[in-house]
Design a protein that fits this description.
Helices cover 5% and strands 49% of the residues. By secondary structure, the protein is mainly beta.
């Protein structure tokens, strides 16, 4: 009814405008309008009867774009002829409409009548109604609610559209009375784009869009970083001077977080021993917000392969370099293992190189140590590496007072007692030693060869020497020997084996040749008043440095014993020697007996064998 009334008013107005236009009244005078209306005549001539073709007349409408409101849209056309005169509906033309309810292109069909002939069409737009204030009223990490204003037009339902996979898709519908929609199972920190459209259901069952909102973009909230965890491939490293960067995965709500899209990461304090940190920072596009950290350990390296050079009062340690170390410290005690174990460790040696020497130690003793490597970074001292506790030992002291054997006086000569197949060398005992090693120089290989290990229990109180018998030697041969003390019994179970101290100076010793001699007793019977007795001694094996002591012994006897006392000693390396013998003048005078001792000169010393008492000698 309202639209019919509007249309009637428009028709009246058009008549007035047409009349005014046709009579040229510019002042809108009612009198003139009435007069003009009286002069208008409606022609009813039939077509082809001189009527004007109006198909090219200008047609306009007040609004060519009209919002949908659920009713028919019948805009009134305004038509001018060639002279500018407005035509009147139902006098000069009639109108009809098509597609004039729902949004789209509607048509006005104009058919000219009266003195006009022909027809024309005019289109106009019916636009979708506007749905206002589409917005989100609740948002969390995985859900949101959108709402919009109620629209008072004829509709059957609302459809919520979402932009997904590169296109707009219908995701939810509700009856026309609803103005809100909730969404769940969304991805955190993700932008979702929505708009709402209203639809009308046609008789065919098809729906047409009749209203539309603007697009609203809503971002879901990101989860807190507390919802994630970092899983490191390793949690402990050993320091080696390089940055440690363990691989890792970030798990959020049971799903691996994409490292290319959702976070950046960095490491801190990941070179030197201590606690290192991996920091994950979630980006603006991540499902999570904030940062997450995970710690891992870098432990000091182990110093091993420590090499030792020992003396009787010092220990020198050489060890591999630790990368980045500026100082090495050796911790130990001032006392050996015989001291109470509760003694505290202290720094006993430092070095900026890979060698440390500690001195003033007790010979043949054990000491506990451990070694540390340090560096200073940012004004803070850091321990880079550490050895395990280890035991080191000093060697026994160097053997001193070495002798070629026991000495004896033969006449005016001092000689070293020896044998034909052995020598007896000696030295001053070394305190704390468990025994001694005897070395002999081998001229062929030019090496010192260990030939004997002896506990050194042959001690001579008179000389205060300990002696060692070296046997199975060649007669008449010079040898070179050395003696070294060793330690084999230790307090610590880590101290195994024999530790040999420095060797003595070289000892020259020699075996004597085998005795070869023969003598005869000569008496001068031609002149009894001047009787002269002598021994004629023949000697074998003599050379430049080999010979014999020929001893004329004075022999006295009594009822209890027979005493031999050297009367004359002749040292010779000649093959014959004449030894005069004092003449006996009475039965009580002593008699004289020849004995010989072989000797060899070697290393500036005289080595003499045992006396040979064979009557007449042993030479064939």
């Amino acid at each position: 009814m309202g639209k019919q009334l509007t249309r009637m008013l428009a028709l009246v107005l058009s008549v007035v405008m047409i009349l005014c236009s046709n009579v040229g009244l510019g002042d809108g005078s009612v009198v003139h309008a009435e007069m003009a209306m009286q002069s208008v005549s409606v022609e009813t001539a039939t077509p082809g009867d001189g009527r004007i073709d109006a198909s090219q007349f200008k047609v306009s409408i007040g609004n060519e774009s009209i919002p949908y409101d659920g009713e028919e849209m019948n805009p009134w056309p305004r038509i001018k002829d060639a002279s500018g005169r407005y035509l009147m509906e139902d006098v000069d033309y009639t109108v009809s409409y098509t597609n004039n309810i729902y949004p789209g292109t509607a048509k006005i069909h104009i058919t000219y009548i009266g003195r006009y002939k022909g027809s024309t069409e005019k289109t106009f737009k019916i636009t979708q109604a506007r749905i206002d204030n589409l917005k989100s009223t609740y948002v969390d990490e995985t859900s949101l609610v959108i709402e919009w204003d109620y629209l008072d037009v004829v509709m059957d339902r609302y459809v919520v559209m979402q932009y997904k996979n590169g296109k707009w898709q219908a995701v939810r519908t509700c009856i026309s009375g609803g103005t809100a929609m909730d969404f769940a199972k969304l991805t955190p920190n993700t932008v979702y784009r929505y708009y709402v459209k209203g639809q009308r259901k046609l008789a065919s069952g098809r729906y047409v869009d009749v209203a539309k909102s603007s697009v609203a973009a809503v971002r879901t909230k990101p989860y807190s970083a507390d919802y994630t965890q970092i899983r490191l491939s390793r949690k402990t490293y050993v320091y080696d001077g390089t940055a440690k960067k363990p691989s890792f995965k970030v798990i959020g709500n049971g799903v691996i977080v994409d490292p290319k899209k959702e976070y950046t990461y960095s490491y801190a304090n990941n070179i030197y021993p201590g606690t290192a940190t991996l920091k994950v920072k979630y980006t603006g596009n991540s499902r999570f917000k904030g940062t997450r950290t995970e710690k891992f350990k870098i432990v000091p390296a182990k110093i091993s392969e420590i090499k030792t050079k020992r003396t009787s009062n010092s220990i020198t340690l050489t060890f591999p370099a630790v990368k980045g170390a500026t100082e090495y410290r050796l911790y130990g005690t001032d006392h050996d293992l015989d001291y109470p174990r509760s003694e505290k460790y202290k720094v006993v040696g430092t070095s900026k190189t890979t060698t440390i020497t500690i001195k003033n130690r007790k010979q043949g003793s054990e000491y506990r140590f451990y070694l540390k490597a340090y560096a200073v970074k940012n004004g803070k001292e850091i321990m880079l590496a550490k050895s395990e506790e280890f035991v080191e030992r000093t060697t026994p002291a160097k053997v001193t007072g070495a002798v070629s054997g026991r000495t004896e006086k033969t006449g005016n000569y001092t000689a070293v007692r020896t044998g034909t197949n052995y020598v007896e060398i000696g030295c001053t005992p070394v305190s704390g030693a468990d025994g001694y090693c005897i070395y002999r120089y081998d001229a062929k290989s030019k090496k010192w060869i260990k030939i004997l290990v002896d506990e050194g229990d042959n001690y001579d109180k008179k000389t205060r020497k300990v002696y060692f018998m070296v046997e199975k030697l060649k007669p008449g041969t010079g040898y070179m020997f050395r003696i070294a003390a060793y330690k084999s019994r230790w307090t610590s179970p880590d101290s195994k084996g024999i530790l040999i101290g420095p060797a003595s100076q070289t000892i020259a010793a020699a075996t004597v040749p085998k005795t070869q001699y023969k003598y005869t007793y000569v008496e001068n019977t031609q002149n009894p008043s001047q009787i002269k007795l002598y021994y004629n001694v023949k000697l074998g094996g003599c050379s430049k440095n080999k010979g014999y002591f020929v001893i004329l012994n004075k022999v006295t006897t009594d009822s209890q014993s027979t005493v031999y006392k050297p009367y004359k000693v002749i040292k010779t390396n000649k093959s014959t020697v004449k030894v005069d013998v004092p003449m006996r003048t009475s039965p009580n005078d002593p008699f004289y007996l020849i004995t010989v001792k072989p000797y060899i000169v070697y290393g500036g010393k005289i080595f003499v064998g045992a006396e040979n008492f064979s009557n007449g000698g042993n030479m064939k």
